[in-house]
Amino acid sequence: MLAAGGLASTAHASVSQGGVYGVDAVTDDWGDEGPLSTTSNSHNSVVGLWQAVLAADGYLPSADVDCSFGPQTKAATIKWQDDHNLGADGIVGPLTFGKADNYLYWVGSEIRYDGSKFDLYSMHRTSSGRWYANGGGSTAYFSYTSSDLCG
Fold first, then answer.
1. In Å, how far from its chain's centre is CA 18?
2. How far apart are CA 20 and CA 142, in angstroms?
3. Prior bond to 94 cis, omega within 30?
4. Are 48 and 42 in contact (CB under 8 A)?
5. Verdict on whether the full-model pTM lies above 0.70
6. Best CA proximity match to 23, nearest among 3, 43, 42, 9
7. What is the DSSP letter of 101?
8. Which helix (H) or strand (E) element contains residue 99?
9. What distance in Å separates the CA atoms of residue 39 and residue 98, rounded to the nearest whole number?
């Protein structure tokens, strides 16, 4: 479903809220997300979002975006973290998500990720700040409790 190709407030989101949320500048929306790993929150739409980031940056084939944090996603995450001067532990927590959200930007009402291989687009926030992807005539929220994003 993800398509490829004032004063700032900090985001208020976490696993306990059930999904990705943010306010004001998108470049601080992901800094409190996670953790995602092979053992924690390992199958959901937020994993699909992270895998889409890895694909956009060339670390994971787009065909491997399946909302499951398995060995390939862990290996790609370690490489991404290493290349971005982070502790390369294969766990996607606030530091990793916070580094990735530096590459987010607005185009009208759409949020995009500036990937090194291709951009992600069709991401949005509701008026309450909840993130979702819109494509193919359907909407899927970035959720820690479902994998709707991956069909």
1. 14
2. 6
3. no
4. no
5. yes
6. 9
7. G
8. helix 94-100
9. 21
Specify the pairing of strand 138-141 against strand 110-113.
unpaired
Crossing angle of helices 71-83 and 45-56, rounded to 10°: 50
129 φ, ψ (degrees, to nearest 5): 95, 0
Q: Provide the β-strand partners of residue 134.
A: 139
The count of other CB atoms within 10 Å of the CB of residue 5 is 10
Q: What is the number of other CB atoms lying within 10 angstroms of the CB of residue 80?
A: 23
- Which position has the token pair 């953790």? 35
Q: pLDDT tens, 89-105?
A: 999 999 999 999 999 99
**What's residue 54's pLDDT?**
98
d(CA 80, CA 121): 20
Structure tokens at 119: 């951009």
- Return d(Cα 5, Cα 37) in angstroms, integer: 26
Residue 116, amino acid: S
